[in-house]
Amino acid sequence: MLIREYGYRGAMCDAAPGPADVVAATPRPAPGPAVDPIALEPVDEVMVTTLVDNVYDALLPGDERTRRAGFDTGHAAAPQFEGGKTATGLVAEHGFAALVSVRRGDTTTTLLFDTGLSPDAMITNADRLGVDLSGIHGVVLSHGHFDHVGGLAGLAGRRGARTLPMVVHPLVWTRRRLAVPGQDMFELPTLSKRALNGEGFEVIERRHPSLLVDGCVLITGEIDRTTEFERGMPPAHQAWTGSGWEHDPLVIDDQALVVHVRDRGLLVLTGCGHAGAVNIVRHAQRLTGVGRLLALLGGLHLGGPAFEPVIPPTIEALTAMAPELVVPGHCTGWRAQHALAAALPEAWVQGSSGTTYRLSAA
Questions:
Q1: DSSP for residue 73
Q2: Residue 305 CB coordination number (10 Å)
Q3: Per the record's keyword annotation, is Hydrolase included, yes or no (predicted)?
Q4: CA 316, CA 201: separation in Å to the nearest integer?
Q5: Which of 54, 277, 323, 335 is 20 to 30 A from 81 in CA distance terms?
């Protein structure tokens, strides 16, 4: 997996979030020189298969761009049924994992973007879908939250003896906790770099944008926070600084995956979208010089009282971009799903574990 590095500096690249939470979350221009645009090579086709999402619905219909997984994806022994077995379908959990295959000419490369919450959900779904995870060319982690990296435990046993490159932000190892008033403190499980190295993953830490797959896939690195309304996580989300716990509004390790579908525009894939969906898309457009948004897939983190006020300006901005496909998943929240479906009825598609989205060049 070719990795080409760029010296672009995103907003707040070199400073950890401090106690001045409002100031830290205030949009600002990106400091220092930028490599703009990055030469992202167009592809002939991209296929994104959601291996893990919060939802699994076997009755959702497909169409020319969407292939759904039904009840026939798996079976389990069950003596209570005639024939001794029953259909299992797929696993849904509070997590996200996607398989991304890009084709340019006769060459196809497949990356794994996030791995879900539990050690076994992703590999269970991959097995039931007939996906051979030993054939992936690399792993990209959107950020360090445990509901996106938990499946690494299961993947470790499937990759074979070869070394597998893994692209992460250097702050993916950050200790974090949720300190909700009136509730018990919950420290989030934290990834171990030492353990991953010991299992044969080739960990590649990048703050800046990286081009993978001979220049066909862009990993954004840190994302500029330029909107006035996407201000990040509430005070309950905290990070360990080495001497104490402080509010971590930015989740600065949040990054997205971007593909340019020839003559059609950008596909942007997010994990949780902590940087804000609009910030992420605009950042991808600025980096690549491609103004057209073809598709937005993944978690948009618009659920719950802290984020629901962000729904209207997010939808206004996304509507102006006029994407052809919008698949909000994972942490988007039901209110945002309903609002996006109403505002973008031709583009919005309900996500579900096991769904494959196919976008081809014009």
A1: G
A2: 7
A3: yes
A4: 41
A5: 54
pLDDT per position as a tens digit, 101-114: 999 999 999 999 99
- Residue 361 CB: number of other CB atoms within 10 A? 15
195 part of a folded domain: yes
CA 217 to chain centre: 14
Are residues 279 and 226 in contact, defined by beta-carbon separation less than 8 angstroms?
yes
Name the domain count of the chain.
1
Estimate to the nearest angstrom the gap between the alpha carbon of 3 and the chain centroid.
19
Which residue in 238, 232, 235, 233 sits closest to 176, CA to CA? Answer: 238
- In a domain? residue 21: no
Measured between alpha carbons, how far is 331 from 317 in angstroms, rounded to an integer? 19
Q: Do the bridges between strand 265-270 and strand 293-299 make them parallel or antiparallel, or are there none, so unpaired? A: parallel
Query: Which residue range(s) make up the domain with 336?
Result: 35-70+88-360
Establish if 23 belongs to a structural domain: no
Which has the closest alpha carbon to 13: 221, 274, 220?
221
CATH number at residue 288: 3.60.15.10
47: in domain: yes
